[in-house]
Amino acid sequence: MICAPSFLSSNFSKLKQEILSINEAKWLHFDVMDGLFVSNTTYDHQMLKTIGEFSNQVFDCHLMIEKPEKYVDNYIENGADYITFHYEASHNPLKLIQYIQSKGVKAGISIKPNTRVEVLDDLLEYLDLILIMSVEPGKGGQKFIPNALDKINYLNNIRTQKKYEYLIEVDGGIQFDTAKMVKNVGCDVIVVGSFIFNQSNRNQIIKELENV
Ligand SMILES: O=C(CO)[C@H](O)[C@H](O)COP(=O)(O)O
Ligand SMILES: [Fe+2]
């Protein structure tokens, strides 16, 4: 699996040092929160610009925002490689997926723990990535909600049957045990925040998570 560290729970007063401490991760996960779709506010596209000055990692942007169609250009212009928006926040998801892809950026969609995975059925053939939330979006450090496993399994089976090519990503409460569980049902990318940033040997932990 690919491990995409989420620096949400890092120390923002020494951000460069924190990002450099996970420099062996190929991906970097940005948690954008607007205080509307979720109650917390984090940062916006300026963060991609700041980190882009010293990182060549794959920028994996998780937009937990209302009206994502109004803001995606900011992320496209500032070096996003993947832009994932929430199904629950979008009015015309297919239009937004195709817009993002027309700009040469990969498009992803995410669903919250209480959203049924079947709502995505008609979108699957168009998507580059599907992000299954295994915690309620809004903050790091929460406990993994096991219904993510059935959703990943469902997406993995459809991908095999229909020869689709999307990546399956999971986000929230991932550590060694839960990483093993999601790997067993076909997950490709794990987002890991607090479990990595609570430790000092971070690059080593990332390697171990990728090979659970
Ligand atoms: O999208 C998120 C929260 O909304 C974060 O990416 C996620 O919570 C990662 O943090 P942790 O590994 O600590 O659960
Ligand atoms: Fe996230």
Task: Provide tags for this entry.
alpha/beta, TIM Barrel, 8 helices, 8 strands, binds ribulose-5-phosphate, binds fe (ii) ion, metal ion binding, Ribulose-phosphate 3-epimerase, Ribul_P_3_epim-like, Ribul_P_3_epim
Please sum up the structure shown.
With 212 residues, the chain is of the alpha/beta class. The protein has helices at 15-20, 46-52, 72-77, 93-102, 147-162, 176-184, 194-197, 202-210, and strands spanning 2-5, 27-33, 58-64, 82-86, 106-111, 129-133, 167-171, 189-192.
How is this structure best described in words?
The protein is an alpha/beta fold and 212 residues long. The chain is 32% helix and 20% strand. It contains 8 helices and 8 strands; from the N terminus they run βαβαβαβαββαβαβαα. Strands 1-8-7-6-5-4-3-2 form an 8-stranded parallel beta sheet. Strand 7, helix 6 and strand 8 form a beta-alpha-beta unit. It starts with a strand and ends with a helix. The model has no long low-confidence stretch (mean pLDDT 98). The chain binds ribulose-5-phosphate and fe (ii) ion (FE2). Ribulose-5-phosphate (5RP) binds next to strand 2, strand 3, strand 8 and helix 7.
